[in-house]
């Protein structure tokens, strides 16, 4: 799972990224403009967003994303603890609100709760699609109760497809989500890994559920008939 942290205080930003990196893939931005660029890619499971930033603040950033139809869950981080600010953040489309200073354990717990509510994470940190079950904590997979060995990138690719079942994902979205903006590979790697993933799923009959949308990308959808 991939998170975006937008926070202009660099020491706090680095601390949050280090805290979350043992459990999630994490991208970061230290200003609202860069945060908006990342958020517009629509590849994140959740965004941790500071409110008070120079230039574009967190409220403005979220309003822009929501106006563009991007509904990524957002957890606001702010030193401002008035009721008015909390209500304002939620009214703008925020999903939760955590006041600084906060404890690391509470931040992680709130993120997990946010992911459960959005359907990205179950209470057992697993996600399911038909007979496929992914165990997020250990990156293990079972298909029809049989274990399947995948590389980490193959696992992340399948996880992303399952989380967005029925939706078309562009190659660019898949590349940015699984390999990240700083990868030194090219977007052609998406086709290569999709081919290998299908091969891994073929003995179980799930390979045909990964549909190629010509000229666009891919979609996970159950094959019928």
Q: How would you portray this structure in words?
A:
- With 225 residues, this protein is α/β, with parallel strands linked by helices.
- The protein is 38% helix and 22% strand.
- The chain has helices spanning 10-20, 32-39, 58-67, 83-91, 104-118, 152-163, 171-178, 189-201; strands spanning 2-6, 25-29, 46-50, 74-78, 96-99, 126-129, 132-135, 140-143, 146-148, 169-170, 210-213, 217-220.
- Strands 2-1-3-4-5 form a five-stranded parallel sheet, with helices on both faces. Strands 6-7-8-9 form a four-stranded antiparallel sheet, covered by helices on one side. Strands 10-12-11 form a three-stranded antiparallel sheet.
- Strand 1, helix 1 and strand 2 form a beta-alpha-beta unit.
- Helix 2 runs parallel beside helix 3 and helix 6 (152-163) crosses helix 8 (189-201).
- The model has no long low-confidence stretch (mean pLDDT 90).
User: What is the CATH C level class of the largest domain, in words?
Assistant: Alpha Beta
Helix percentage range = 25-40%
Radius of gyration: 18 Å
Can you count the beta strands?
12
Write down the overall mean pLDDT.
90
Structural class: alpha/beta
Q: How many domains, as an integer?
A: 2
Strand content: 15-25%
The CATH superfamily of the largest domain is identified as Response regulator
Neighbour order of strands in the largest sheet: 2-1-3-4-5
Within the CATH hierarchy, at the fold level, what is the topology of the largest domain?
A: Rossmann fold
* Helix/strand order: EHEHEHEHEHEEEEHEHHEE
Low-confidence stretches: none
Largest sheet: 5 strands, parallel
The CATH architecture of the largest domain comes to 3-Layer(aba) Sandwich
């Amino acid at each position: 799972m991939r998170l975006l942290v937008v926070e202009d205080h660099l020491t706090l930003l680095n601390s949050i990224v280090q805290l979350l990196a043992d459990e999630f893939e994490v991208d970061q931005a230290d200003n609202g403009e860069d945060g908006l660029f990342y958020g517009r890619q629509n590849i994140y499971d959740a965004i941790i967003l500071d409110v008070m930033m120079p230039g574009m603040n967190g409220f403005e950033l979220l309003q822009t994303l929501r106006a563009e139809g991007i509904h990524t869950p957002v957890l606001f981080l702010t030193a401002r603890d008035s009721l008015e600010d909390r209500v304002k953040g939620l009214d703008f489309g925020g999903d939760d609100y955590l006041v600084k200073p906060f404890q690391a354990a509470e931040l992680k717990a709130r993120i997990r709760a946010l992911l459960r509510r959005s359907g990205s994470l179950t209470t057992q940190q697993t996600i399911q699609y038909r007979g496929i079950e992914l165990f997020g904590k250990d990156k293990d997979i079972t298909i029809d109760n049989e274990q399947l060995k995948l590389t980490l990138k193959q696992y992340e690719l399948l996880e992303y497809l399952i989380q967005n079942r029925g939706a078309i994902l562009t190659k660019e979205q898949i590349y940015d989500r699984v390999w990240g903006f700083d990868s030194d590979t090219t977007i052609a790697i998406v086709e290569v890994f999709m081919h290998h993933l299908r091969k891994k799923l073929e003995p179980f009959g799930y390979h045909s559920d990964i549909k190629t949308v010509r000229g666009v990308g891919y979609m996970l959808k159950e094959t019928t008939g």
